């Protein structure tokens, strides 16, 4: 009787070298599901004050005030150049009216953003509610 070398006739099973991936995958799926559930939903919206009922037909056309911001930062109120103090006083007068006129802000294409932002911040600070940007087609 000779001695046999090798594992072909041995009674012990071979050692398993591969890792069992099923429990690892199960744990990863549970962690992904918990991550998705706990991430807060991000809300990318702008709050608008929409009318709640049908508005009455206006009997007269609305009053429109045009504020132009020139390329060098000069602010024009209905075509007349104004400084910061005059702009604030005129915006305060608009805000004090019971039926505020529409304020159309028309920036030049070449003006720095800080000049336009200063006008919008002044209008917001003084509670001007009917303000809108016009002339946006020049930015296309």
In short:
The protein has 140 residues and is of the alpha/beta class. It has helices at 22-38, 84-96, 113-125, and strands at 64-69, 75-77, 80-82, 102-107, 131-133. The protein has a five-stranded mixed beta sheet with strand order 3-2-1-4-5.
Describe the structure.
It is a single chain. This protein has 140 residues and is of the alpha/beta class. Helices cover 31% and strands 15% of the residues. The protein has three helices and five strands; from the N terminus they run H-E-E-E-H-E-H-E. The chain has helices at residues 22-38, 84-96, 113-125; strands at 64-69, 75-77, 80-82, 102-107, 131-133. It has a five-stranded mixed sheet with strand order 3-2-1-4-5. A hairpin with a 5-residue loop joins strand 1 (64-69) and strand 2 (75-77). It is elongated and about 105 Å long. The N and C termini lie far apart (95 Å). The mean pLDDT is 85.
Give the class from helix and strand content and strand pairing.
alpha/beta
Helicity, as a percent range: 25-40%
What is the strand content? 15-25%
| Total number of strands | 5
H and E string: HEEEHEHE
Instruction: Name the average pLDDT.
Output: 85
How many alpha or pi helices? 3
Largest sheet: 5 strands, mixed
Radius of gyration: 35 Å
Strand line-up in the sheet with most strands: 3-2-1-4-5
Residue runs with pLDDT of under 50 for 5 or more positions: none
Shape: elongated
Distance between the termini: 95 Å
């Amino acid at each position: 009787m000779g001695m046999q070398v090798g594992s072909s006739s041995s009674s012990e099973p071979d050692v398993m070298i591969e890792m069992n991936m099923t429990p690892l995958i199960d744990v990863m799926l549970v962690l992904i599901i918990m991550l998705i559930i706990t991430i807060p939903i991000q809300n990318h919206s702008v709050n608008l004050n929409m009318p709640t009922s049908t508005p009455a037909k206006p009997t007269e056309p609305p009053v429109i005030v045009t504020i132009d911001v020139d390329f060098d930062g000069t602010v024009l109120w209905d075509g007349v150049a104004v400084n910061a103090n005059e702009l604030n006083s005129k915006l305060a007068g608009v805000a004090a009216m019971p039926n505020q006129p529409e304020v159309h802000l028309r920036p030049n294409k070449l003006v720095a953003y800080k000049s336009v932002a200063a006008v919008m911040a002044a209008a917001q600070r003084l509670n001007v509610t009917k303000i809108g940007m016009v002339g946006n087609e020049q930015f296309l």
